[in-house]
Amino acid sequence: METRSNHVLVGTVVLILLAVLALFTVWIARLGGTSEKEYDIFFRQSVDGLAKGSAVTYSGVPSGQVKEIALWRPDPQYVRVRVAVNEQTPILQGTTASISASFTGTSTVALDGARKGAQPIACPEENRRQLCPYDVPVIPTKQGGIGAILNSAPQLLERLSTLTERLTGLLSDRNQASIAGILDNTNRLSDALADRGPEIAATLAQTRVAIQQAGDAAQSIGQLAQTTNGVLAEDVKPAMANLNKAILSAQESAETLNAAVGDARPGLQAFSKQTVPEVGQLVRDLRVTAASFASIAEKIDQQGAGSLVGQQKLPDYKGK
Fold it and tell me: What region holds the Mce/MlaD domain (predicted)?
């Protein structure tokens, strides 16, 4: 009995020591580890390849793991993903989450985009129930590479179908014949250009000569223009000076003539007011005198000189 009691006592002591060792190990692990913070992410896309325990990275650095994946009951279009991230990870305002797929088929939650100096993401006091439906902060999402491809897959397939139809129409028998004709014409044109190669080379050489001659002519015209400017500067300027002197002399003569006319103006006015009427009266008197002389001459011619001194003879009276 005593031996059995000793075995029980030893076993009990050993169990107690093992329990203490386990508790000490857990305490050391917690002491050396870091605390975590939980966040919710609502993805409006497929989360294929993502599972509980999948890694969470921040700018490629492992920072946590996925704790829970479930459909969001209020709106089944969204998938709620609960992640636990190391408390030291800077989950600040501007941080976004996306799903990053790999060739092995597994996916990870990728976080990035925090702004320097921004406040940490937390549940606000106002509209807390609406913005934090499960009492943990919510990280907004952005479409990753695979998510964008999956969401745009229908449009991509539709565009590929349209492109295929257009290519089919473009490569019809009629269009193929037209393309073949265009290629034949291009070949003939290439052959013709190859045959005319020497003539084209000669034409290009003549064109170079013509361009060079045009350049020489332009240079000669420039020199002629410079010579013309020199002639104008040397010969025309003295002639213009002489012409200016002649114009000044003519102006002085015109001013002298105007002064003379001004001085003679009073005499001209007196002549026009006094002498001209007297001359008119004299002319009228001369006309009267001339008429009298004409009458006398006519009388002498008809009756003789005696008619000027004797009385005019009356005609003889004859009775009936």
Answer: 41-112
